[in-house]
Amino acid sequence: MIIFSEKQIKALFTYCIEGLPNECCGLLAGIIEDGIKTVTHIFYLKNTDQSPEHFSMDIKEQFQVISQIRKNNLQLVGNFHSHPSTPSRPSAEDIRLAFDPNLSYVIISLQERENPVINSFNIKDSKAGKDQLQVME
């Protein structure tokens, strides 16, 4: 399970909509207790591909974020990216590039701009399973 606040979800939707027509991406940090991931920090990273169909995170930004996460005694809980015109589910490329089965892979679909959809997935051995995603006040 991964937990976000309503404020975080709204911020993610806003960020991804503002990044159109390209995919947006970033890292999620927080606390993991008994397998439950609580997001406390969202790090918005540049999509170096500048593409509406795929993304790559800037490696220097990633290292800076990981350093901040460690300094603050947090854990990397996952990453996120948007799908500007496709559903909130991992593409074949998303599955192929998933590098850590312990992370949550959050996908935000902007297929319907007025009603974005967010889902979280665990990806292991080239198979994607849906995580439970909870939004708290």
TrEMBL record:
Pfam families: Prok-JAB. The keyword Cell membrane does not apply. InterPro entries: JAB_dom_prok (IPR028090), JAMM/MPN+_dom (IPR000555), MPN (IPR037518), VirAsm_ModProt (IPR051929). One of its GO terms (biological process) is proteolysis. Keywords: Hydrolase, Metal-binding, Metalloprotease, Protease, Zinc. It comes from the Bacteria. GO terms for molecular function: metalloexopeptidase activity; zinc ion binding. Residues 2-137 form the MPN domain. PANTHER family: CYSO-CYSTEINE PEPTIDASE (PTHR34858:SF1). This is MPN domain-containing protein.
